[in-house]
Amino acid sequence: MEIRVAKELLHVQRWLAVAASIVAKGADDYHADEVAQEAGDSLMIKLGEASKTLAARGVQAPPGVTWSDAAKNREKLAHHYSVVDRDVTWQTLSVALPQWQEALAPLFAEARAEFGINT
Question: What is the pTM of this model?
Answer without folding.
Answer: 0.91
